[in-house]
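request received
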Amino acid sequence: MPELPEVETFRRYIDATSLQKTILDISISNTKILEGIDQGLLEKNLLHKKFERTSRHGKYVFIASNNKHFLVLHFGMTGFLKYFKNEDEKPNHTRLLIEFDNNYKLAYVNQRLFCKVNVIDDKDTYTHDKHLGIDALDISFEEFRNLLKKHDSMIKSLLMNQSIIAGIGNIYADEILFQSGIHPATKVQKISDKKIRNMYDKLRNVLNVSISVQADFEKYPDGFIIPHRKKQGSYPKGNETLKTMKVNNRTTYFCPVHQKKS
DNA sequence: CGTGGCTCCTGGCGGC
DNA sequence: TGCCGCCAGGAGCCAC
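response:
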C-alpha cells in the first residue's frame, strides 16, 4: 500500500507525535523486519536518544536522532504507524515498538513481512546502494523529460521503477496515467512532448492532492480512480467501465475509452 | 536494457 | 463448513 503519499503522511505523523522525546525502550517482535542489522545495533544507536527530524526519499522514511544516526523505515505493502498510550490500543502485527519518556509508544505495524527497518549513518550512501532514483516530487520537468528520453519500456513500468523515479507504485502509476489519458502499456518513446508535459503536471498534482487528503480513500476528490479500484469497478463520473490488465505482472486499472494506446 | 517469473510473507476471499 | 488456489498497493534476483 504505502507509496509516496502514504509514506509522506507517515513522515508527518512522526513529526507530529514522536520528536524530541527520549527513547526508553525498543522492542522487536519479529527480527525478519531488520535489514541486515541486529537488535543490539538498533538499541546501541537509539536507546536513550531522541528523534530530531524526519525526511523521505521515495517510499523510505528516515528519522534522524540527536546522535547522528537514522532510523530507516520501509513499509512494504501493508505497513503503517500508530502512536498510542494504552496497551489495549496496540495494533495487531506490531513489529517494532518504540517507547518514549512520556509513556507514549510508536508502533510500526506490518501484517506481511515485506518491510524493512534499518539504522544507518548516511542517507546518501543508503539511497545510492539501493539504486534509488530521484524522488518523484523533487524531479524537475527537464529532468523528467530527459529520463523519459533515455528509456523505452512501457510507461507504467518506467513510473514504477524505483531506480529511475522513486516513490510511485502500482496505485499511483495507474492514477497518473488515468488522469493523463495515456494507456499504461504505451511505449515511452511513443509519447508526444505535449503529453509528457501534461503527464508531468498530472504526476505532481496526483501526488500533492493525495498527500493533502492523507491518502485516505474516503477523501479523494472526484476525478480520481483510486477509490474505484475493484473488480469490474465502474468509474461513476463518465459512464465508462474501468478495465484491468497486467503490466509487469501487476494488476493495472485503466479506462479503455480515455486511455488509448498512441 | 526490458520483461516476466519466482520468491519472500500473511490473510482474506471466492469457488467447489 | 472445509479446503484450496488466487490475490494483494513492494521489491530483489535471475533467465531470456
